[in-house]
Specification:
mainly alpha; single chain; 1 helix
């Protein structure tokens, strides 16, 4: 019986270590990878705004040319 208790204790310690490792990996993912993804999305948004303004400017020029020749 004592051998089984000792074996269970060792397995519990291993599981706790694995859980700590998983928590650490989740924290790394949350703090590091999501930060970089957010920065990438912000960069894409800036490019989309710039393209939108360029298209709006070209549309304004086309309307002006159509109205005043």
């Amino acid at each position: 019986m004592e051998g089984l208790d000792r074996k269970n204790e060792i397995q519990i310690i291993e599981i706790r270590g694995e859980l700590k490792l998983l928590v650490q990996q989740l924290q790394t993912l949350k703090n590091n990878d999501l930060y970089h993804l957010q920065k990438s999305v912000e960069g894409i948004q800036k490019v989309l705004w710039a393209v939108g303004f360029l298209v709006l400017g070209q549309l304004g020029i086309a309307i002006r040319a159509a109205l005043w020749g």
